[in-house]
Amino acid sequence: MTTFDPIKTRENPNILSAAHSLLVVDDDPMTCTRVKAYFEREGYCVRVAANGDEMWDCLRQHPTDVVLLDIGLPGRDGLELARELRAHNASIGLILVTGRNDDIDKIVGLESGADDYVTKPFNARELLARVKIVLRRLRPVSAAGVSGLQRKLGQWTLDLAQRKLTAANGHQEILTRGEFDLLAALARHLGTAVERERLMQQVFHRSWDPSDRTVDVLVARLREKMEKDPRHPELIVTVRGVGYLLADNAAS
Q: In this structure, is residue 12 part of a structural domain?
C-alpha cells in the first residue's frame, strides 16, 4: 500500500520567474526522452518516472505543477494512480495519456479526477497547449479581473476569484480544475442553456463531437457533489438536444 507522505508544492504558484515543473510518468523511455527534450526547450523543468513508486518518490522530493500520466503502466496502472493522486492532492495538474482512442479510457480517466487527456501518438505542440491550459487554471484570478466575484447557487456559493465552492454550512467542496471551470462556464450563463460544443471550447479549448462524453462526465461528477438527488437534478439541468443549464432558481 502506498504511504502518502506530503507532496512538495510551490509556496507561491504565481511566481512567474520560476520554471514550471512537469513530471512525465511513462514506462516507454523513448516517449519520456522526446517529451523531456521538447519541454526543456520550452523552458520547463522536466522529471521522468517509469512507474507509480518512482512517481511518488519524485512528488515527495520535488515541487510539481503538472503530472503527465500514462494509463497503460505496468503494475498499478495510470487510472489507479490518478485516483490515488487526486485523493491526496486536489490542486496538482493531471493529464492522462492513453495509447488507444478509447472513449472508455477517457471517461474513466476524467472520473478519476484528471484535468485533461491526450491520445498516443500525440503532437508535442498539442501536448504543450494542453499543459498551458492546465497551468492557467493553477493561477488564482485577480479580483480586479472578475466581474461578479461570487454566485449564489442554492445552498452553494461559487467564488470565481478564489476558485472555491462552499456550502451554506461552511463546508468547502473540493473540485478538480475541469469541474470548477465547467461550473464557472455554466454560472456565467445562469438560466441559459449552453451547448456542449461551447462548454468544450471554454473548458478544454478543443472541438466537440457527438461521441465525446467529456462534458457529460464532468456534469455527472458535479451533480454527485452538489445535488440533493443526483438522479433528479435541480441545479444542473439537461436540455435535450442542446446541452446543460444552471437553473436560475438555483440563485434563490
A: no
